């Protein structure tokens, strides 16, 4: 066997530490490299998955409480998805949607999604990721106004603390500062304003009800910039980067009306909230808000293969009828990704996973409330469906990064793959397992988190 072959095979003659060392040696600095200095094996090498669990090289079963950046909905290792991907590769591995050529798999997926998404009589453009979906949404919004004779409408408004992707334009639209600093100059015309943000928006405290003063600020900012210069507002139905932020019911009703009154398109970013994560198929269903453009990715294929999509309402699509949008994407609507998405949607429906996500919400809340009662540092909890966060005060700790490592490592040693991030003097711990998670998994996972948080 050559070196190249052994490098990608989890061969049994090497220890986990050897594999981790190879990774660290050959990959650009990324999040997987975090925590190397922990006196164990880093990065942890995952070799298999089963439902809500991943299994590492040492055979440990770990609850996947971050669903791998929120992608995994139907659980890991589903044989039906594997079979359908396999079958699709045998039928035809790839067809580019170009020059009079398409395929039945993209047509079937578009038809199915059109019945689900909160977007009026939508048409679709497929992508490979959430970032690409949002990037395309911005291009569509700007072209839409240009074709309607308003070329001055170019600005894209988003909200502080949001995340919309890793490309240059989506970094510019991202409100969470650490993801955009040092990459400039970023594209012009991207502006951020306030959003409901417990303890951070400057209006409401951690456990107060939202007064919507943040939305007053946001609207005032747009008016000050000149609403006639604005192409679109982009918003996640429920933002998660710092904490899971569930806006009050009237937030989106008002934002939708404001956009309509000022001729601004509303882009709903469902990349994390979509496909059952919040106990509804799409996050926007909690607020009954329709997007002019709706973007998604992750849960669409449950992470089995990369795929994203942009839904465009018919009234927006009309302007592209006579001259298509010149936006070429080689792998758009990749047949293997379409097959994976169709299999995932079949499984979600058959196993009633959206309902299951809603039914697990009170159990997750009960367990997290118990954790809050047990750990004095917990400042704020938020739960919707199987999406939750716990905000922990670590302001008395001199080295917050060391605290993160410790929490992550102790959680892992207790069977929990937790997503722990730092937000100033606060720790945000997200708990959002695959939708197939059972009550006892949640109970065990939150206990593991409690052990870790007690040891800060
Ligand atoms: N939008 C939101 C709300 C996201 O959470 C993410 C990814 N975390 C993205 C967009 C970007 O998606 P991707 O990483 O697939 O490009």
TrEMBL record:
Q: Which keywords, in A-to-Z order, does the entry hold?
A: Aminotransferase, Pyridoxal phosphate, Transferase
Question: What EC number(s) is this enzyme filed under?
Answer: 2.6.1.76
Q: List the GO molecular function terms.
A: diaminobutyrate-2-oxoglutarate transaminase activity; pyridoxal phosphate binding
Q: What pathway is it annotated to?
A: Amine and polyamine biosynthesis; ectoine biosynthesis; L-ectoine from L-aspartate 4-semialdehyde: step 1/3
Species of origin reads: Verminephrobacter eiseniae (strain EF01-2)
Q: Which cofactors?
A: pyridoxal 5'-phosphate
What is the similarity comment for this entry?
Answer: Belongs to the class-III pyridoxal-phosphate-dependent aminotransferase family.
Highest taxon of the lineage = Bacteria
List the protein's name.
Diaminobutyrate--2-oxoglutarate transaminase
């Amino acid at each position: 066997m050559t070196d190249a072959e052994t490098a990608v095979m989890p061969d049994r003659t090497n220890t986990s530490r050897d594999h981790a060392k190879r990774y660290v040696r050959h990959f650009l600095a990324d999040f997987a490299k975090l925590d190397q200095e922990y006196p164990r094996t880093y990065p942890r090498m995952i070799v298999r998955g089963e439902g809500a669990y991943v299994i590492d090289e040492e055979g440990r079963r770990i609850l996947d409480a971050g669903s791998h950046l929120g992608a995994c909905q139907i659980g890991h290792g589903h044989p039906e998805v594997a079979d359908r991907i396999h079958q699709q590769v045998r039928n035809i591995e790839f067809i580019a949607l170009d020059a009079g050529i398409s395929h039945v798999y993209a047509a079937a997926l578009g038809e199915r999604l059109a019945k689900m998404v909160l977007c009026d009589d939508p048409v679709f453009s497929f992508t490979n990721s959430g970032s690409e979906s949002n990037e395309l949404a911005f291009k569509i919004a700007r072209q839409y106004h240009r074709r309607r004779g308003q070329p001055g409408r170019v600005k894209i408004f988003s909200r502080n603390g949001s995340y919309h992707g890793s490309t240059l334009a989506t970094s510019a639209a991202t409100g969470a500062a650490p993801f955009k600093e040092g990459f400039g100059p970023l594209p012009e015309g991207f502006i951020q304003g306030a959003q409901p943000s417990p303890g951070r928006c400057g209006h409401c405290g951690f456990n107060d009800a939202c007064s919507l003063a943040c939305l007053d600020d946001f609207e005032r900012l747009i008016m000050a910039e000149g609403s006639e210069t604005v192409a679109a507002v982009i918003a996640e139905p429920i933002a998660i980067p710092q904490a899971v932020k569930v806006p009050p019911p009237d937030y989106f009703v008002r934002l939708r009306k404001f956009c309509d009154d000022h001729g601004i398109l509303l882009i709903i970013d469902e990349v994390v909230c979509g496909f059952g994560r919040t106990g509804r198929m799409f996050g926007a269903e909690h607020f009954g808000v329709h997007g002019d453009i709706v973007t998604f990715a992750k849960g669409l294929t449950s992470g089995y293969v990369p795929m994203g999509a942009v839904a465009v309402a018919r009234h927006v699509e009309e302007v592209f009828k006579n001259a298509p949008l010149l936006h070429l994407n080689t792998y758009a609507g990749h047949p293997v990704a379409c097959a994976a998405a169709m299999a995932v949607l079949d499984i979600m429906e058959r196993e009633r996973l959206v309902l299951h996500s809603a039914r697990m919400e009170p159990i997750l809340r009960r367990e997290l409330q118990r954790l809050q009662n047990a750990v004095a540092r917990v400042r704020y909890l938020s739960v919707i469906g199987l999406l939750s966060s716990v905000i922990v005060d670590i302001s008395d700790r001199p080295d917050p990064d060391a605290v993160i490592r410790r929490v992550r490592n102790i959680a892992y040693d207790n069977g929990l793959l937790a997503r722990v991030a730092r937000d100033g003097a606060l720790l945000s711990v997200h708990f959002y397992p695959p939708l197939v998670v059972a009550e006892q998994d949640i109970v065990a996972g939150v206990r593991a988190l409690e052990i870790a948080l007690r040891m800060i």
